[in-house]
Amino acid sequence: MPRYVRVKSPTTKHEFDVPETDPRLKRGLLTRIKDDRYPPVDRPRRAKHFIPRKQAAVAVEIPKEPTDG
């Protein structure tokens, strides 16, 4: 039975479980997360998707009402 380890994708920053024998680990395409927090398990855990915060708030212009004056 394969054991699953928690990894993080450096490009997308998503965290998910893969089998210990996954070739992407050997090629350095995935970074393994600390074993003390996520020890190897028999079944994969739910993925944690990275959702970036907006870097800059988009300003919305509100049209000004014409003034009578």
Give an overview in words.
With 69 residues, the chain is mainly beta. The chain has a domain at 1-45. Helix content is 6%, strand content 17%. The protein has 1 helix and 3 strands. It has one helix at residues 23-26, and strands at residues 4-8, 15-19, 31-32. The chain has a 3-stranded antiparallel sheet, with no helix packed on it. The mean pLDDT is 87.
For the termini, the CA-CA separation is: 81 Å
Shape: elongated
Task: Please state how the strands of the largest beta sheet are arranged side by side.
Answer: 2-1-3
Structural class label: mainly beta
Instruction: Please give the number of β-strands.
Output: 3
Mean pLDDT over the full residue set? 87
Reported for the largest beta sheet, the result is: 3 strands, antiparallel
Which spans have pLDDT < 50 for at least 5 consecutive residues? none
Radius of gyration in whole Å, from Cα?
Answer: 22 Å
The number of distinct helices, counting runs of at least 4 residues, comes to: 1
Strand portion: 15-25%
Q: Give helix % range.
A: under 10%
Order of helices and strands: EEHE
